[in-house]
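Repro:
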Amino acid sequence: MYQFIAKAKLPTIHGDFDIHVFENQDGQEHVLLSVGLPNQTDKLPLIRIHSECLTGDAFGSLKCDCGPQLNAAMQAIQVHGVGAILYLRQEGRGIGLTNKIRAYALQDQGHDTLQANLLLDLPADARSYEMCREMLAHVGISQAALMTNNPNKVNELNQIGIEVVERIPLIVGVNQHNQDYLSVKGAKMAHFIKPDDLQG
């Protein structure tokens, strides 16, 4: 069970957002950034479900595409005028920061991102999305256009009663350090990423 805790204005380099904090019974916090909600227009809200990535979001790591995805989503929602980013505290696809860095060390030895998790006896993706139902309901969203390359997010939202009317690709931040990482997502994890998407 997640409950709404607090809301405030958040001016950013991309524009002004409302920031909402939600918390579960164990004290785990998740954040929703919103623009134009509750929706007073006929526009379909644009949303991004973004899992926390300290290395990419805060430190600008080139090993992943997380930071560029977050920034692109914030910009797109500002331009669209109606939407939200759900920033979920699920570091490293749910395995946590320490295990993520352990997986990075294995990747430095030549293993890909999926192999590294499995060598650590960890799942390829341990995230859950049940908290999204209450977070989106809080700002009146039951239908949305979802910015993602991950089919699991589309399926999970549909299963919890959030209708994904449209999927919008979000392929940004491709570089020489993350091309293999993104290729594995497409080839081994069924993400909507094609080899042509990774040519710069």
